[in-house]
Write a structure and sequence with these properties.
This protein is of the alpha+beta class. The chain folds into four domains: 167 residues, 2-Layer Sandwich (Beta-Lactamase); 162 residues, GAF domain (Beta-Lactamase); 174 residues, P-loop containing nucleotide triphosphate hydrolases (Rossmann fold); 56 residues, Orthogonal Bundle (Arc Repressor Mutant, subunit A). It contains 24 helices and 21 strands. The strands form five sheets. It has a six-stranded antiparallel sheet, sandwiched between helices. A six-stranded antiparallel sheet has the order 9-8-7-12-11-10. Strands 14-15-18-13-19 form a five-stranded parallel sheet. A hairpin with a 5-residue loop joins strand 11 and strand 12. The radius of gyration is 34 Å and the shape is globular.
Length: 691
C-alpha cells in the first residue's frame, strides 16, 4: 500500500472526480474508482450494493475481488433489515469491523469470514441526503482498517455516489435512445392503420411493459375508441369506452400523466384496470397540427413502472408521430374518396387476420383426447391418416365427445397448419345471418349492414373451415355451401363480385344426417359432398376404460387452476364415475370434476351424491353391466335423453341460462347454442319460472 497521508488522499479523491467526468460506462467507471482507492487503502475485495426502490432490496452491483467466493456474486440481493449492508444504507453511517474472528453480527459476516475476510469497512452512498447504496472494502488481514480509513472511505463514497448518479443518467439517456431507435426501426416500413398496430407492439417492447394502446376521440367528448391495443401476447379487438372512471380522462384533457403504482386504488371504478391486473399507467395526448387533442397513446403494466421519466420523451415523440399519421389518413380519405373504402377494408382485413390467428393458435389442442381404448385409438388413427390430405372430413358424434378437438388435431397435422382454422357454429347463428357469417356482405346489403363484413370462408382462405353442427344449416344456405365446396367460389351477400378461395372443410354434427336427408331437412348432394371421409368420435359410455384416465387428467388440471391440494380420487367415487352413462360425454365429465374440485377440501376427491344424481335421464349402471341396457327397461332416444338432460340442468340453475351458475356453463355450451337446442327440442320455461 502506498502513502496514506493527506496528499495521497486528496489526490485519490481528485482522481475519483476525474473518473466521474471521463468514464460513463459502469465497467470503466468502477475500474477507475477501484484503482484510485487502492492507492490509499488496501483491500482484497471491493463491492458496491445499489438499492432497488421498487422491490426494496440491495443488489450487489459491482464486485472486484482476488478472493475465491462461495456467497458473494453480482446479483446477490439483501434485505435492508437483515444485513450489515442494510444497516449502513438505512443509518447512513460507516460500519467498521476490525476482527471478524470475534466480531460477527449478521449472517453475511459469516459468509465473508468463510471466504477469508477478517476486516472490512462499509460506507453509505449518499446523494443530496438520499441513500442509494453502499461501498465496501475488505481485507484478509485482522485490524487492517482504522477510524481514519473509514472517514476517508466515507468521503470517497460521496464522490462514488455522484459517479453512480452520473452513470445512471447516462444509461437512462442511452436507454431512451435505444427505445427511440427500436420503435422507429420497427415502424419505419408501415403506414396507416398498420402503423398503429406496429407502434403499440414496439412501444410495449421498448418500454418493457405488458400493455400499450392508441385511441382516437369520438364526437361524444366523454368517449374514445381504440385504434390498436397490444395485450402482451396479441392484439385485442378495438372497442369504445367511457372516459369518466379511467386515468385516460386527464390525458385527453391534453396533459401527459403518469401513475407509477397503485393505479387501481386511484381509479377504483375502472373495471378494465382490475381485469388487466394493472398497477401502473403512463399516457400522452395525441395532438393534431392545430394543437387539438385527437386521441392519446398510453402504456399499462402489471407491475410498478419506475421508468416514467425516461419514457416520457419517447411517449411524447411517438404520440406526435401518431397524430401526424392520423392527419395524413384523414387527408388521404378526403383526396381519394373513391379508393378510401378499399384501403380501409384492406387494413381492417389485415388486422382481423392477425387477431384471428393469435386467437385460434392460443385455444384448444389435442391434449384432452385422453385415453387408450380401442374405440378412441381407432378414431385417432383415422385422424393421422386423413390429416395430411385435403379431403373433406365429416366428424360424427354426440354432444361433448370432443368433435372440435378432433377438427383442431386434423388441422394442426395438415399442410395448412400455418394458416388459420376458422370455426363456425351453425346452430348458434340465426337463420337470417348464416349466409352473411359464411360468405360476408357488402355495405348496404341489408338493413343494419353499415360496413363490409368479411365472411368466414374468406378469412379461412389457405386454411381450414370448421363447420360445427352443420346439420342445423337452413336449406337455402346449403345450396350456396354446396357450390363453394364444388367450385371454390362464392359471392358475398349483396355483391355481384365472385371471390375464389382455397379452403379445406371439416364438418361436424351430432345429428343423423341420413335421417335428415330422408326427411327432407338436409340436401342429399351436400351430404354426399361432406361425407367424403366420415370419422366417428365414440361416446364416453363406449369407452368406459378411459374414464379413470380422464378423471385424473381433469382433477390434475382443475386442482392446479383452483389451487387445491388434490392428489387422488376415492375408490367409491371412481367406481361411480365409471358406472355413470355420461349423456353429456367428456364435457359433462369435465364440468362434474370441476365442481367437485371447487367443493373439495383435503387431498382426496370425494364426489358428493347431489353432483351426479340418478334419475330417468341419468343412468348409473352396475359395474358388471358395461354399456348394456337394463333388462325390461325401454331405451330412450338420444333426443329424449338430451331433452331431459337440458331440462334438468335448467331446473337446477333455476332457469338461468348465462353466467357462472347458468345452465349453459353447467352443460359446457355457448348460451346461444343452448337456446337453439331448447327451441329445437321444444323446451320452454314454465310460466312462473325464474329467469
Amino acid at each position: 500500500m502506498e502513502n496514506k497521508g493527506p496528499s495521497a488522499a486528496y489526490d485519490t479523491l481528485l482522481e475519483i472526480n476525474n473518473a466521474i467526468i471521463s468514464n460513463l460506462t459502469r465497467e470503466a467507471l468502477f475500474h477507475a474508482i477501484a484503482a484510485a482507492l487502492r492507492r490509499v487503502i488496501a483491500f482484497d475485495r471491493t463491492a458496491v450494493f445499489l438499492h432497488d426502490a421498487d422491490r426494496d432490496v440491495l443488489s450487489l452491483f459491482i464486485l472486484e475481488s482476488s478472493l475465491p467466493t462461495t456467497y458473494f456474486h453480482v446479483g446477490l440481493e439483501m434485505r435492508p433489515n437483515d444485513s450489515h449492508v442494510g444497516w449502513v444504507f438505512k443509518e447512513q453511517k460507516a460500519l467498521l469491523r476490525r476482527n471478524l474472528e470475534r466480531d460477527r453480527h449478521y449472517p453475511p459476516d459469516d459468509w465473508a469470514y468463510a471466504d477469508g475476510v477478517r476486516s472490512y469497512i462499509i460506507v453509505p452512498l449518499v446523494v443530496r441526503g438520499r441513500s442509494i447504496g453502499t461501498l465496501a472494502v475488505a481485507s484478509t488481514v485482522v485490524d487492517q482498517y482504522s477510524e481514519a480509513d473509514a472517514a476517508f472511505l466515507q468521503e470517497a463514497g460521496r464522490q462514488v455516489a455522484l459517479a453512480i448518479e452520473n452513470m445512471q443518467a447516462y444509461e437512462a439517456l442511452t436507454r431512451a435512445e435505444e427505445m427511440l431507435r427500436e420503435i422507429a426501426e420497427g415502424t419505419a416500413a408501415v403506414t396507416g392503420h398498420d402503423f398503429f398496430y406496429s407502434l403499440v407492439r414496439h412501444l410495449a417492447s421498448a418500454l418493457r411493459v405488458r400493455y400499450a394502446f392508441l385511441t382516437e376521440c369520438l364526437p361524444d367528448p366523454t368517449r374514445v375508441r381504440t385504434l390498436a391495443f397490444w395485450k402482451g401476447d396479441g392484439f385485442a379487438e378495438n372497442f369504445e369506452y367511457d372516459l369518466a372512471p379511467t386515468p385516460c380522462r386527464v390525458v385527453l384533457e391534453g396533459k401527459a400523466t403518469a401513475y407509477p403504482s397503485d393505479v387501481q386504488r386511484l381509479f377504483p371504478d375502472d373495471r378494465d384496470l382490475v381485469d388487466l391486473a394493472a398497477q401502473s399507467y403512463f399516457g400522452a395526448p395525441v395532438l393534431d397540427s392545430s394543437g387539438h387533442v385527437a386521441g392519446h397513446l398510453a402504456v399499462l403494466d402489471d407491475k410498478p413502472f419506475s421508468e416514467a421519466g425516461r419514457a416520457a420523451p419517447v411517449l411524447r415523440a411517438f404520440a406526435a408521430r401518431a397524430g401526424a399519421e392520423l392527419e395524413r389518413l384523414a387527408a388521404e380519405e378526403r383526396l381519394r374518396a373513391a379508393l378510401a373504402e378499399v384501403e380501409t377494408l384492406k387494413n381492417r382485413l389485415h388486422a382481423e387476420n392477425i387477431y384471428l390467428q393469435e386467437e385460434i393458435r392460443g385455444e384448444h389442442n389435442f391434449v384432452e383426447m385422453v385415453g387408450s381404448s380401442p374405440a378412441l385409438l381407432a378414431a385417432l388413427r383415422q385422424v393421422e391418416q386423413v390429416a395430411p390430405t385435403d379431403s373433406t372430413v365429416l366428424i360424427l358424434g354426440e354432444t361433448g365427445t370432443g368433435k372440435e378437438l378432433i377438427a383442431r388435431a386434423i388441422h394442426s397435422r395438415s399442410g395448412r397448419r400455418e394458416r388459420p382454422l376458422v370455426k363456425v357454429n351453425c346452430s348458434a347463428i340465426s337463420a337470417g345471418l348464416v349466409e352473411s357469417e359464411l360468405f360476408g356482405h357488402v355495405k348496404g346489403a341489408f338493413t343494419g349492414a353499415l360496413e363490409r363484413r368479411t365472411g368466414r370462408f374468406e378469412l379461412a382462405d389457405g386454411g381450414t373451415l370448421f363447420l360445427d353442427e352443420v346439420g342445423d344449416l337452413p336449406l337455402e344456405t346449403q345450396v350456396k355451401l354446396l357450390r363453394v365446396l364444388q367450385e371454390r367460389e362464392f359471392e358475398p351477400v349483396g355483391s355481384n363480385r365472385t371471390l375464389r378461395v382455397n379452403v379445406r372443410v371439416i364438418a361436424a354434427t351430432n345429428r343423423n344426417l341420413e335421417e335428415a336427408v330422408a326427411a327432407g331437412r338436409f340436401r342429399a348432394d351436400l351430404f354426399y359432398r361432406l361425407n367424403v371421409f366420415p370419422l366417428r368420435v365414440p361416446a364416453l359410455r363406449d369407452r368406459r376404460g378411459d374414464i379413470p384416465q380422464l378423471v385424473m387428467f381433469f382433477v390434475s388440471r382443475f386442482a392446479k387452476e383452483l389451487g387445491k391440494p388434490l392428489e387422488a380420487v376415492s375408490q367409491a367415487t371412481m367406481e361411480r364415475l365409471v358406472r355413470y352413462d355420461w349423456p353429456g360425454n367428456v364435457r359433462e365429465l369435465a364440468n362434474i370434476i370441476e365442481r367437485a374440485t371447487v367443493l373439495a377440501s383435503g387431498r382426496l376427491l370425494e364426489l358428493d351424491a347431489d353432483l351426479l344424481p340418478v334419475g330417468p335421464d341419468r343412468v348409473v349402471r352396475p359395474v358388471s353391466s358395461g354399456s348394456a341396457p337394463v333388462v325390461g327397461q325401454p331405451l330412450a332416444t338420444l333426443e329424449e335423453i338430451e331433452r331431459r338432460h337440458i331440462r334438468e340442468a335448467l331446473e337446477r340453475s333455476r332457469w338461468v341460462i348465462e353466467g357462472s351458475a347458468g345452465a349453459a356453463r353447467v352443460l359446457g355450451l355457448h348460451p346461444n347454442t343452448l337456446r337453439s337446442r331448447m327451441a329445437k327440442l321444444g323446451i320452454s320455461r314454465p310460466p312462473h319460472g325464474i329467469s
